[in-house]
Write the structure tokens for this entry.
Amino acid sequence: MEEILDLLRQNARLSAADIAALTKKTEEEVCAIIKKLEDDGVILKYAAIVNPEKDKENRDKVLAEIQIQVQPQREHGFDMIADRIYRFPQVKSLYLMSGGYDLRVTIEGDSLKDVALFVSEKLSTLEGVRSTKTNFVLKKYKENDVVYVEDERDRREGIQA
């Protein structure tokens, strides 16, 4: 199973026939394993990774990471407030963290003002939120093992006289 998962992590568009050839399994075995992984919730979704600099429709979107300190709730800890936060459509990711803050949220908005309004009107007003700290993403270099920047260095070798 792990070998098939690794192949799908690298390229989710691989066909069952391609995976079968690479793993020396039959196509039917591969299909059965993938179905089991999907049914068990191991594979949740297949998605395209898009270079934000080249996506003309969404190039001007604003991405922000927000550090949140919260008051955990009795018998629920951080789960109840996390549940409320990740349901907002602006939220792209949410993590429980160790260290100086409790939750790290990544959100996407149409403008800086859009993000600021989300934080001030939706996030900071939630019961249990003690403080927020917003950092705006200026440029993505690498995410999920994908490098977004193109290597534009001059590869010509110098000539000495």
Notes: Residues 49 and 143 are 10 Å apart (CA to CA). The chain has five helices and six strands.
